[in-house]
Every structure is written in structure tokens, then in C-alpha cells.
Amino acid sequence: xxxxxxxxxxxxxxxxxxxxxxxxxxxxNAQTGAVIGGIAGGLLGASSSDNKLIKGxxxxxxxxxxxxxxxxxxxxxxxxxxxxxxxxxxxxxxxGSELRVTMPQDLLFDVDSTALRPVLRSDLIALxxxxxxxxxxTVMVIGHTDxxxxxxxxxxxxxxxxxxVSYELRTNGVAPGRIESFGRGESxxxxxxxxxxxxxxxxxxxxxxxxxxx
Length: 214
Prior knowledge:
- The chain is α+β, with helices and mostly antiparallel strands.
- The chain has seven helices and five strands.
- The protein has helices spanning 2-22, 29-46, 52-84, 105-108, 118-133, 151-171, 196-202, and strands at 91-94, 99-104, 137-144, 179-183, 204-211.
- Helix 1 runs antiparallel to helix 2 (29-46) and helix 3 (52-84) packs antiparallel against helix 5 (118-133).
- The protein is globular and about 55 Å long.
- 42% of the residues are buried.
């Protein structure tokens, strides 16, 4: 079985090198996706009881091709998002398997409010347009708060704010079936709640975009 796994991985690496050469100058996420997909495909093929050697190679090659295509799509989508959302306060991160768009709640909402501020509404409209341009994805909208206030209050506020952002995306044409929204309250901080700066970083809405093939 080890031989099949190794061959699947080699197939992935070979195909990912082709991907890198073909798309020279693009983000390395396409190559990363090809490698991950290839190894996964190799493992899948190697687990079969018949023709394990051949299936490991074929599975690795197919997985590499799929992973590379996903990586290229994410590269293009992230580039388009950065062009359309020309706002340094909005974070756009391409992990290689998904896009994470982070919007500060202090810009999205007033204190203790779920009413959207006009300042970021245009960015949400641009995000909706991008999602419509790349329809083969699913979207998670996750609300987060700082630690000020009770756990129950923070959870409820984060949940309602995520729902408002989801509604705005749907209003601008994103299919409802693609979107899931929920709140995490104060449970997933990205900075210390001991300072105002840290608390402002924790007050955020994250939009996670995943290709359907992932």
C-alpha cells in the first residue's frame, strides 16, 4: 500500500508542477491545491482492493487536477474581490481551500445595533456581485463579538448581525440556498479582549467562501 500512496503523491507533484508552469506568476494556491488533491486521490485509490497500483496513480492524477482547478478559481476570485472591494479595512485571505472575507463590525453596525451602516453597504453589494460571478461556491456568514456583556447577549447579537449580512447578500442576488449564517458570540477571539484595540478586532463578521468541490 505504501507504494501506491507514494506513486499517487508523485503523480500529484508532477501534475502540480505542470499547473505551476502553465500559470506562472499566479498565486501558489493552485499548486498547493494540486498537491493536496493529488495525495488525497492517491490515498483514495490505494484503499481499493483491486488494481491498487493503477488506481493509486489515476486517483492521484485526478485529485491533482481537481485541486489545481480549485486553487486557480480561488486565486481569480480573490483577485477580483480585492479589485472590487477597494477597502483596506476589509480583510481578504486565500487559504488555498477557501476565501475568508473579514468585515469589522464597528464599520458594519452601530454599537448594539443590527442596522447596517451605509459605509460598508457598497462593499457587501460588491461581494454579492462577486459571489454571483462565481456561483459554484457555498458561503458561511459568521458573526463574532468581543467579551463585553454576557455570553447569551453576545451570541444573540452576533447571530442577528450575521443574519443581516446574509439578508443583504440575498437581496443582491445571491441564491439563499448557498448561504448559511450563524453567530459565535465571544467564543472565537482573534486578539486579546484586554485592550480596546483587541476588542475591536474581535468584533467582526467573517464570510467564508468554499468551492463546492472542496
